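[Automated response] Your request has been received and processed.

Submitted sequence:
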Amino acid sequence: MSRPCRVPAHRTAHRTAFHTVSRGIFASARHFRRPVPFQPQHNLTRERRMRAGSGDVTWGAGRPVIRLAGAGLLGALGLALAPGAAQAQFSNPLFMPDPPSNGSADPGVSFLEGQYRVTSTAGPRVRTSPDLVNWKEEQPLFAPGGEPQWVRPDPRTGARRAGSPKIYELSDRADGPGRQYVLLFSAPHKDKGKGCIGRAVSNTPHSFRNAGRKSKAGPLECKDNGDFGLIDPALFVDHTRGGKHYLLYKRQLKDHRKKEMRRPSDIVIRPINTDVRRGLGSSTRLVVGNGKGEVGSVEAPTMVRHDGRYFLFYSVGLFSNDSYAVSVAVSRRDANRPTGGKFIKYRENPIYSGRGTGDFCGVGHQDVRKNPDGTWRLFAHANLRETNPAKPPDARNKCVKSRRDLVSETLRWDRRTSNPNFHWPSVSNGKPSGNGKTTGTFAPFMG
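Generated structure:
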């Protein structure tokens, strides 16, 4: 009596996976002529998400995107899909605020709990999006009663506004148990009359409460080199040095709009404890605003590490005109550490600006981040350009100051040098892509 032939389990998995994927591919061909509206996978119901993972067709950038099997099935085949296979469409600016006067000035962009979270100067709420396409504005930046009372109130509205705010996740739980987040911001002090760095904490990436260095009611830092005011704080965590934390910010004169040309501003870095409150070390100057086209101003520091070197992205010029732009500098090889002294500016700066474009001007105050899928993105604010032909020629190309909108570009490390292991970064063609109408594509990642 013959026995039935047993097929090993691993061969059965390979065979099943092959037939499932094949059915998905060939069945999908029948749908190519039918324009299926694009829906990001994270918006699908569980049942439809399962169908999409078994061979359904979604649409992005005007072309079908075949979604094959899930990770386990592809693993059985020895295949892998790139993170974020589903594509979503976006255009610059990423969203149009309502009301229009509430723009995205000085944006801080974080990716926390599966969502992009955008904060901006004077913005009372946190905008969230899973894919840079679908945006919500529903979470307050400060909890009721949590606003910083040391901040000088706005003379028109009485509100205590936070400048250049950004959210970071804390590894230190010094302020209490549970998952914690810290908000860094700057604002004019009601008594000192100059800019100070503020700190607020929360167990969620919104609804923060002020928590200063010496007391919960005060700021994090106000004193640094005499009459300088402090703005544009940023946090850098060096995971190659045991997770050491650093605080960066811009130092400026009290009345910088009148005197900054005579005495340029600078950007400094200081060690700080992992609770981002204690252990604030001495300042090290990284760049000073005395370069060509910088108009005496450097601001909005963002530090990242790439290919073993430390890069400092910063903005130069005046935000209200075309002198505003994004530049970059790098740590010296003989002092390759965050506090190793003055950084070397890229000789082809700026790498991103609105100069020569017909739609945007005053482009800058960037934020740079590495996404979970390994790609890099640059975010910045951009003023819409005034192009009213009825105005005099000298007034047609000025920035519209009523609103600064959020734009985003892919950041690539592709500018070659004599060192094959070192590349400067570049951003598209150096100018904002799109004009409020042109659509780009972005592959969202889940989680």
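Summary generated for your ticket: Residues 9-81 form one domain. The first helix runs from residue 9 to 29.
If you did not submit this request, please reply to this message.
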